[in-house]
Structure formats: C-alpha cells, structure tokens
C-alpha cells in the first residue's frame, strides 16, 4: 500500500482538499477497498462477525423502541474495542488510522440505523471533541471510559431556535463569583444517546460572546445536577436510538471542564461535524450492501409469470443502479479517507501533535467530507426506495426488511448538517480556499473562458485505451464547473452566498465529478493489477455512473447559467456546456446495466 513516506515506491502526489477540481489525480494515487491491509481485513471480518451475531438477528427488536438493547450492544461493542478504534492507545483506545476508523463505521452501521446512530453519536461527535481539543487531564479522565464503553457520550448542540444556524444558541454559561465553576442554563433538542449517556459535550454562550463555548458535562441520573430529560422522541425511523430533549437548570460545571478556549465552541462543533460527515457517508455504505443483498435474494426467489422476477429487465435495471451507487460510494469514501490519513501522517512527521495533525488533516478535506455526506446519504435513500419497489407490496410491510431500512435512511440527509447546508458549504469553502490561494480556481477558470472563445479542435481523438474518452470527459466536466462557478464568483463576488439555488446547482456538479472520478480511478487501478477481465462489471459501473452524472451536470449547469447570464454570454456558455458534455461514442446504457445485474443476480449478493 503506497503512502507518502514509502521509500521503495513512488511518492504519492497528495492533493490538497478541493484541488481535485483543477488537477488530475492518477489512479495509482487513490486508495481503494482492494488496498485494505491484512490488519484492516481482520478488523473488517471482526466487525461483520459482531454485527451478524449480535445485531442483524435482533433487527425486529430495534423497531420496538428497545433502548436497553441499543445500550447493551453498545457496551459489547466497547468490550470488542470498536468504540475506541480512533482513540490513541495511551487512553485505552486502539489508536488506528483514519481508514480503519472509517472501515469500522462502515461495517458496523449496516444492520440498523438505531445502532448506527448510537455508535456514531458516541464514538464520533461524543468522543472526538475531547480527543481533538481536550487537555491532557481531560483526555486521561474521560477517554478510557468512553473507549471501552464504561461510559457513553452525547453531543448537545442543537436547540429549538438553533439548528443549521448552530452558533445562534441561547444556552447560557455563567461564571460563579468564586471562579470555580460555570452554571449552565438552557435547552437542547434531538440529543442522540441522551437516555443512557454519562457525559455530554454541551455548547453554551458566556455573557454576550460572539461565539459559543464547549463544555464537558457529566450526567448521573442519581445526582442530576440540574439536568432533566424530556420523553423519548417519537420518530419516523431509528426507533431504538435514544433521542431526547435535555434541559439544564443552573447545572454546575467545573471551570476545568471547559473544552479548549472560551469562544472556541463553534470551531469545535464545525470540526467535529467535518469528521462526522465523512463517517456518515461510511455509515451509509454497508446499509446499501445489505439492502442490495435482500433485494436480489428476493428477486431470485419471487416467481411471477412462471419466472423469477430477477429475469425481468425492469428489475435488473434497478439492481444495476443500486450496485453502481454502492460501488461509487465506496470508491469516493475510501479515497477521501486515505487522503485525510496521509495528510495527518505528514503533519505528525513534521512534528505536530496527534491532536493538531488530525484537526488540520480533516479540516483540509472538509469540502470532500460535505460532498460525500450528501452523495452517499442520497444514494442510500434511493437504494432503500428501490428495495421496497423490488419487494412490491411486501416491501411496504413492516414484516419485511425494506420498510425499516427506508425509514432509517431518511435521517441521514438531515443530521450532521442538512444536505442543503452541506451543498452550500462545499462550494463556499472551495471559494474561500481559492481566495486564500490554497486552490487555484482563477487560473483554470480564465483558461476555460479563453477556450470558449477560441476555435475548437477537430482532430479525431484516440480512445483505444480503457477509459480514455471517460477521462477526457471528466476533464471537460471540470471545465463546466469552472465555467459556471467561475463566472458566478466574478459576477456576484461576496454576494454569492445569497444565491442559494446557484450554489446548490454548482454543488451538484462538484459532487458528480468527484464521485464519477473516484469510481473510474478505482477501476483503472484494479484493472492494472488484476487484469481487465476481472473488472468487467466494475468497468460497466464506472461508465454507467459517469453517463448519468453527465445528464445531471447538464441539467444543473443550464439552471445555473440561465440564472445569471444573458445575451451573448449566455449563448456562449450554453454552447460551451454542449461542447464539454458531448460523448464521441455514446455508451449502451442498457447493455451496461445488464452486465452489472447479471453478476449481482448470479452471485445472489452485492459481490464487489
């Protein structure tokens, strides 16, 4: 496995976050699930064995609001070491890298959204702020308990009037006259794990500070210290995930339990959410695999008109699209996870602490984290929806697996920042990076502008190599983004954030490019080492996804262009769009789907 520090292999060209849109990534520089080390494969097998033994057989119980079951299995996960996979060893964690952390989140989350939410809220946003921002004393006091499942954590940020606008919270923290503690008063809502947590990361405002401050607040029901809980929320899905309101009434918190510095809470919250976003993408992957497994098994067994419904083209089309989305989601998620891990390693080698290296490493790829959160959560929702459709009437029944999978999937588009917020964040962060000189958007955008007014080449390209046309098309799709986003930035400047529909359209272009490129690079890398014959279906999935991505990009780019350009400028940009999204050799989409579906149907599972 190549890393930036391997002495015996070529040095990986590690791009900065967001640079994928202006630079070419080589196939050998992406990490893929086929690159898992033996240690990572053992961890994967261990997690799958745990889920198949402890969680999957009790899936029905999770639909009956069995919060005790969730707590019991979380404790078992702690005993197995899964809760502390990313916590350094000196605090009783496993101290594993970002890819392994992602892998555990992936494979532990597929059976039910209830356990997935509890696991993510505890091991991610419930523990991570202490790992990344805690003092040595705070880490030694809390991390061993959180790593082993002796204690459970929660994350109390959202308030009735402060959801997406997290920094507008009204919860107050008042310093005591003797300076020994803060008194916290306020209300939090939608707090996962609230019903069985021992500790919360709570955000409150001191006096009239511009930004909120983070605190570590212990909770003992026997000695509530001014903390009271609302009833368990009645929710569409994740029925056995404890979700309650939390009320603080003069809750006393020692001054040494302030997390980081005064006024640093908003930064803590945003960085915790960056990690939470990519891990949420990971948490949606095995859920897709298990839905595909259930759908294809049902399709192979269900007989109508004297044949299994898996023989019908309409069903095959659905299975092919579902498998393609899962494959692409894996490709993009592990690509980004390894980039983050490599950036963390580089910073540590340069002398930074684990805390600082991980903070900056994840922050570097905040754009990719947001893109992945949006893309994979929406793919999961589509996958479960098609799963219900394949089951037909039975899919609508609570006795079948698809109904609960569909309901559980719905929340993934809301938490860790809604998908709309994340779309706008991704483009906004990219523009800010460009202004700081971290990503050169202006130079490439200027070249695209010059190219649009120039005479196009009429030379017949050589597409004899695998993915030659697809990679040229990808390069052109990046020009589409630069054309639309570059012109929008030039036109609106700092006012761009007020044009939300334009930001949403630009984000969709960005998402489709990253996802399509990730799949193509993964497949290209595996063709080079395993041979083209072994990757026939993966090639088909990569081509199918790109074909659909082009359609989405054409639609979203048109919306963007006509929203701000007029007359000759609009005509030139629309002509450019047509030029940059043109296939020379139109793929046979029906044939691609058939290749993919036949493999899934023959294997009776998601086989990639």
Describe the structure.
The chain is built from 20 helices and ten strands. The protein has helices spanning 38-55, 59-62, 67-79, 98-108, 113-126, 128-133, 136-148, 265-283, 285-301, 313-349, 354-364, 366-391, 401-410, 419-436, 442-453, 468-492, 500-530, 536-564, 567-580, 589-603; strands spanning 153-156, 172-175, 181-192, 199-206, 213-218, 227-229, 243-254, 258-259, 303-304, 307-308. Helix 5 (113-126) runs antiparallel to helix 8 (265-283), helix 10 (313-349) crosses helix 18 and helix 18 crosses helix 20. Mean pLDDT is 95; it is low at 1-9.
Would you kindly provide a brief summary of this structure?
The chain is α+β, with helices and mostly antiparallel strands. 56% of the residues lie in helices and 9% in strands.
Keywords:
608 residues, alpha+beta, eight-stranded mixed sheet, two-stranded antiparallel sheet, 20 helices, 56% helix, globular
Write the layout of secondary structure elements.
Blueprint: H1 38-55, H2 59-62, H3 67-79, H4 98-108, H5 113-126, H6 128-133, H7 136-148, E1 153-156, E2 172-175, E3 181-192, E4 199-206, E5 213-218, E6 227-229, E7 243-254, E8 258-259, H8 265-283, H9 285-301, E9 303-304, E10 307-308, H10 313-349, H11 354-364, H12 366-391, H13 401-410, H14 419-436, H15 442-453, H16 468-492, H17 500-530, H18 536-564, H19 567-580, H20 589-603
Parallel strand pairs: 1-4, 2-4
Antiparallel strand pairs: 2-3, 3-7, 4-5, 5-8, 6-7, 9-10
Helix pairs in contact: 1-4, 3-5, 4-8, 4-10, 5-8, 8-12, 9-10, 9-12, 10-11, 10-12, 10-17, 10-18, 10-20, 12-13, 12-14, 12-17, 14-17, 15-16, 16-17, 16-18, 16-19, 17-18, 18-19, 18-20
């Amino acid at each position: 496995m190549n890393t930036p520090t391997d002495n015996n292999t070529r040095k990986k060209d590690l791009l900065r976050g967001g640079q994928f849109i202006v630079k070419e990534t080589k196939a050998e520089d992406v990490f893929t699930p086929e690159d898992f080390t033996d240690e990572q494969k053992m961890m994967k097998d261990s997690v799958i064995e745990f889920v198949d033994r402890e969680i999957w057989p009790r899936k029905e119980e999770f639909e009956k609001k069995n919060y005790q079951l969730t707590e019991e299995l979380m404790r078992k996960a702690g005993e197995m070491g899964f809760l502390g996979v990313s916590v350094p060893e000196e605090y009783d964690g496993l101290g594993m890298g970002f890819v392994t952390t992602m892998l555990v989140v992936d494979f532990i989350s597929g059976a039910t959204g209830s356990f997935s939410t509890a696991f993510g809220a505890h091991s991610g946003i419930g523990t991570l702020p202490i790992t990344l921002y805690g003092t040595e004393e705070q880490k030694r006091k809390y991390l061993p308990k959180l790593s082993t499942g002796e204690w459970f954590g929660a994350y109390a940020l959202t308030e009735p009037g402060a959801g997406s606008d997290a920094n507008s919270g009204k919860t107050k923290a008042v310093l005591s006259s003797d300076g020994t503690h803060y008194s916290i008063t306020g209300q939090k809502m939608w707090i996962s794990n609230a019903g069985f947590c021992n500790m919360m990361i709570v955000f409150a405002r001191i006096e009239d500070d511009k930004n909120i401050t983070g605190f570590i607040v212990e909770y003992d029901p026997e000695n509530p210290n001014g903390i009271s809980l609302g009833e368990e929320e009645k929710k569409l899905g994740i029925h056995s995930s404890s979700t309650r309101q939390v009320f603080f009434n003069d809750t006393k918190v020692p001054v040494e339990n302030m997390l980081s510095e005064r006024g640093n809470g908003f930064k803590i919250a945003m960085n915790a959410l960056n990690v939470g976003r990519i891990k949420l993408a990971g948490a949606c992957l095995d859920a897709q695999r298990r839905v595909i497994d259930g759908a294809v098994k049902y399709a192979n067994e269900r007989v109508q008109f004297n044949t299994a419904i898996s023989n019908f083209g309409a069903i095959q089309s659905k299975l092919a699209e579902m498998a393609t989305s899962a494959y692409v989601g894996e490709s993009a998620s592990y690509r980004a996870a390894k980039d983050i891990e490599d950036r963390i390693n580089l910073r540590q080698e340069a002398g930074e602490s684990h805390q600082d290296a991980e903070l900056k490493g994840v922050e570097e790829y905040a754009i990719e984290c947001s893109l992945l959160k949006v893309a994979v959560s929406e793919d999961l929702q589509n996958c479960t929806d098609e799963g219900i459709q394949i089951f037909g009437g039975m899919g609508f029944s609570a006795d079948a697996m698809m109904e609960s999978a569909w309901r559980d999937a719905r929340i993934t588009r809301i938490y860790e920042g809604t998908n709309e917020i994340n779309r706008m964040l991704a483009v906004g962060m990219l523009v800010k990076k460009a202004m700081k000189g971290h990503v050169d958007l202006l130079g490439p955008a200027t070249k695209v502008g010059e190219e649009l007014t120039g005479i196009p080449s009429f030379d017949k390209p050589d597409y004899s190599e695998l993915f030659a046309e697809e990679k040229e098309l990808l390069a052109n799709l990046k020009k589409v983004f630069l054309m639309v986003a570059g012109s929008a930035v030039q036109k609106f400047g700092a006012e761009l954030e007020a044009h939300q529909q334009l930001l949403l359209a630009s984000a969709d272009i960005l998402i489709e490019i990253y996802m399509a490129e990730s799949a193509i690079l993964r497949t290209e890398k595996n063709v080079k080492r395993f041979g083209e014959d072994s990757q026939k279906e993966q090639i088909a999935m990569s081509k199918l996804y790109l074909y659909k991505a082009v359609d989405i990009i054409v639609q979203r780019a048109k919306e963007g262009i006509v929203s701000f350009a007029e007359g000759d400028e609009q005509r030139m940009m629309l002509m450019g769009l047509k030029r940059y999204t043109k296939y020379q050799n139109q793929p046979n989409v029906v044939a691609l789907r058939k290749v993919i579906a036949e493999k899934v149907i023959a294997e009776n599972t998601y086989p990639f």
